Amino acid sequence: MSVAVIRDLDALRRQTAAWRKAGETFGLVPTMGALHEGHLDLVRLAKSQCTHAVVSIFVNPAQFAPHEDFDRYPRDEAGDLAKLKRVGCDLVWSPDRSVMYPEGFATRIVPAGAAEGLESDFRPHFFGGVATVCCKLFTQVGPDIAVFGEKDYQQLTVVRQMVRDLDLPMRIVGLPTVREADGLAMSSRNAYLTPDERAVAPTIYRVVSQVAEAAASGDVIAAAVAGGKADLEAAGFKVDYLEVRDAKTLAPLTTDPDGPLRVLVAAWLGKTRLIDNIGVAHPLHRGL
Ligand code: PAF
């Protein structure tokens, strides 16, 4: 039997109400489709913590600027459903645009705090679109948990902040980034890379790892970041940002940071924008 796909909100609510009545729990994995092994690990995690795993598939126009890749974003519903069946997904919530954003829709979540800087400096519309659609997905599905990958670390932090700030009765669970054998973080957008770009792409992981090691061993962070940017540019990337921030709040570093840190990067390789990040668990650094 194939995975059940629901596109109608009343039908979704009937199914989740039946699960609740039976005392069953369910976890949501929000996606935009074009699923890869990283997404499937999120579903496995949801399944391991709840009775049922629900996956939403919705390419959210509100998080793309007009010049971005909404139209060419990869879409493959039949392939996605086959993969989801393999990992035991119980239900796919795949609303049409008119169900998510009906005529007259006019409300938007405006996240600040963790949403400031990094991605927002280059994609100012992005977190408003993500927070709005996630808030809608959470109220539509009403899950016990929602599972997100750490690959989009700022997104994960913004969604955690929103759930806390709005007292949404659910828990956000993060899963460490799933990587290819050469270190490249799995992403639906990797499909855009040419073979030559794909060969160079793991440099981004090597660079964030180097900066994280430098911060952990007490080197001056600004020097490590400048070196990392130079390495990326020498490999053919155009860097949007490479920064080290507070891992919990994503606040810019103070002069004497003492908690866990996160190294975050976004850079273009040809027409493809890649992002990555890595944690610095026990920074010894004393200098910025
Ligand atoms: O990470 C994504 O795929 C999207 O930003 C999300 C969380 C599904 C919201 O559209």
Write the layout of secondary structure elements.
Elements: E1 4-6, H1 9-21, E2 26-31, H2 37-49, E3 52-57, H3 77-86, E4 91-93, H4 97-100, H5 119-122, H6 126-141, E5 145-149, H7 153-165, E6 171-175, H8 195-200, H9 203-216, H10 221-234, E7 238-246, E8 261-269, E9 272-280
Parallel strand pairs: 1-4, 2-3, 2-5, 3-4, 5-6
Antiparallel strand pairs: 7-8, 8-9
Helix pairs in contact: 6-7, 9-10
This protein binds pantoate.
Please outline what is shown here.
The protein is α/β, with parallel strands linked by helices. 37% of the residues lie in helices and 19% in strands. It has helices at 9-21, 37-49, 77-86, 97-100, 119-122, 126-141, 153-165, 195-200, 203-216, 221-234, and strands spanning 4-6, 26-31, 52-57, 91-93, 145-149, 171-175, 238-246, 261-269, 272-280.
What can you tell me about this protein's structure?
Strand 2 (26-31), helix 2 and strand 3 form a beta-alpha-beta unit. The termini are far apart. The radius of gyration is 19 Å and the shape is globular. It is built from ten helices and nine strands. By secondary structure, the protein is of the alpha/beta class. The protein has two domains: 4-175, Rossmann fold (3-Layer(aba) Sandwich); 188-280, Pantoate-beta-alanine ligase, C-terminal domain (Pantoate--beta-alanine Ligase, Chain: A,domain 2). The mean pLDDT is 96. Helix 6 (126-141) crosses helix 7 (153-165) and helix 9 runs antiparallel to helix 10. The strands form two sheets. The chain has a six-stranded parallel sheet with strand order 1-4-3-2-5-6, with helices on both faces. The chain has a three-stranded antiparallel sheet with strand order 7-8-9, with helices on one face. The longest helix has 16 residues, at 126-141. The chain has helices spanning 9-21, 37-49, 77-86, 97-100, 119-122, 126-141, 153-165, 195-200, 203-216, 221-234, and strands spanning 4-6, 26-31, 52-57, 91-93, 145-149, 171-175, 238-246, 261-269, 272-280. It is 37% helix and 19% strand. The site of pantoate has 10 residues, from strand 2 and helix 6.
